[in-house]
Design a protein that fits this description.
It contains nine helices and 15 strands. It is of the alpha/beta class. Strands 3, 4, 5, 6, 7, 14 and 15 form a seven-stranded mixed sheet that branches. The structure holds NADPH dihydro-nicotinamide-adenine-dinucleotide phosphate (NDP). InterPro entries: ADH-like_C, ADH_N_2, ER, GroES-like_sf, MDR_fam, NAD(P)-bd_dom_sf.
């Protein structure tokens, strides 16, 4: 069984020393267990946080243990009454080619509903993150302006489409012209800003948001967010979903302080994790599935191939190489 473990905790951007490739026996499948062959592995920005030994909403990864994460696999041996060989399941199998799971660790996927990979994004964690962060905290109303950073990524691309469904004017900020064109041409965003090439993000925001910003869905933090904060309207809402621009910083960056802005604008800024909404996942997944089926939502995937490329694919998130959800295909059905 090929596995990838955490060899050392990274300072700054992870590199080759962070990860180690190891080979282990798969082990024996016991009564009530299933053996899963991994098909797709999800790489996610929050995993960077788990590489550090700090208290958070999820446990840090342990040194020299398999890196944990969401995956999809096929059951190749079953000693469970609930599952049979050939069933497709999702769960936290981590960065390894095979995984022996107990029944409660996996959720079965119905491949007839949508491509199985959608369970790792639009019908899974990142779709639910978009859904609850935007609707429960952002609460966009028809005619309002919603700005999204990290807009062409897995979460951001869904946030913008849901905001359009709710009748908002949607402006996305992303890191390339190809991404901005994707937002406008394929997802019907009203405007897009390439933060890497703009000389003046504040001026671009003013131009793209003539009526100001009512909802700012923040995926990136840092200077991009500082700029958006200057354009808020009264009673603006700011779901703080992620701060990827700061995850690899060696020294914490504080940036402009926002209290006065929040006071002057009576704005609401609220951090959240998707886990806060676990009691409502069924509701969210049902609505996302319905919109997908009705053609009101679409998605893009960036798929890298090969188990050996998982660490590099993970780093691609920080290089902005992905449009939509970044996945690694590691096995064939
Ligand atoms: P994405 O698919 O958006 O991939 C990450 C993207 O971030 C890259 O494509 C890149 O796009 C952008 N990025 C990378 N570095 C920077 C930088 N320095 N400045 C600005 N943008 C950068 O990932 P996800 O959709 O999975 O996650 C998006 C955000 O949501 C992350 O911050 C993540 O931590 C957070 N998240 C939070 C959850 C929660 O429960 N609160 C759950 C899931 C995700 P570009 O080319 O535009 O720079």
């Amino acid at each position: 069984n090929n596995q990838i473990t955490l060899a050392e905790r990274p300072q700054g951007m992870p590199d080759d020393n962070t990860f180690e490739f190891v080979k282990k026996d798969v082990g024996d499948v016991k009564e009530g267990q299933i053996l899963i062959k991994t098909l797709y592995v999800s790489v996610d920005p929050y995993m960077r946080g788990r590489m550090e030994n700090v208290e958070s909403y999820v446990e840090p990864f342990k040194l020299n243990e398999v890196i944990d994460g969401g995956s999809i696999g096929e059951i190749i041996e079953s000693k469970s009454d609930q599952f049979k060989t050939g069933d497709i399941v999702t769960g936290m199998f981590g960065w390894q080619e095979y995984y022996i799971a107990g029944e409660s660790e996996v959720r079965q996927i119905d491949p007839s509903i949508a491509p199985i990979t959608t369970n790792l994004h639009i019908l899974g964690m990142t779709g639910l993150t978009a859904y609850f962060g935007l609707l429960d905290i952002g609460k966009p109303k028809a005619g309002e302006t919603v700005v999204i950073s990290g807009a062409a990524g897995s979460v951001g691309s869904i946030v913008g489409q849901i905001a359009k469904i709710k009748g908002a004017r949607v402006v996305g900020i992303a890191g390339s012209d190809e991404k901005v064109n994707f937002l406008k041409d394929e997802l019907n965003f009203d405007a897009g800003i390439n933060y890497r090439t703009t000389g003046n993000i504040k001026a671009d925001l003013k131009h793209a948001c003539p009526d100001g910003v009512d909802v700012y869905y923040d995926n990136v933090g840092g200077e991009i967010s500082d700029a958006v904060m200057t354009q808020l309207n009264r009673y603006a809402r700011i779901p703080v979903c992620g701060a990827i621009s700061t995850y690899n910083l060696e020294e914490k960056d504080i940036g402009p302080r926002v209290q006065q802005t929040l006071i002057k604008k009576s704005a609401l800024m609220q951090g959240f994790t998707v886990g806060n909404y676990s009691g409502r996942f069924k509701e969210g997944a049902k609505q996302l599935g319905q919109w997908l089926q009705e053609g009101k939502l679409t998605y893009r995937e960036t798929i890298r191939e090969g188990f050996e490329n998982i660490p590099d694919a993970f780093l691609d998130l920080f290089r902005g190489k992905n449009i939509g959800k970044l996945l690694v295909k590691v096995g064939e059905r």
